[in-house]
Amino acid sequence: MSYDRVRDSQTIIGTKQTVKAMRAGSVKELFVALDADNWVTDSAISFAREIGIPVTLVESKKELGKACRIHVGAAVVAITVE
Question: Which member of 11, 43, 60, 69 has the lowest number of beta carbons within 10 Å of its beta carbon?
């Protein structure tokens, strides 16, 4: 499942940090929580699609945050190039 890929990978959490990493060419996949506000996620999704990075939608900010081993929800998470 998607959360397992996040749990087992090096990640960047948050829209601003993710977009910055995408600009640097450091991202191989983007995960976005469906229950996050669009104004938080839209810029990251648009940019990822523009530059050809796969976007995976997951159900829950809470579960995405838990997969990243943080105690708050995460709207946008990027798996980095290793």
Answer: 69
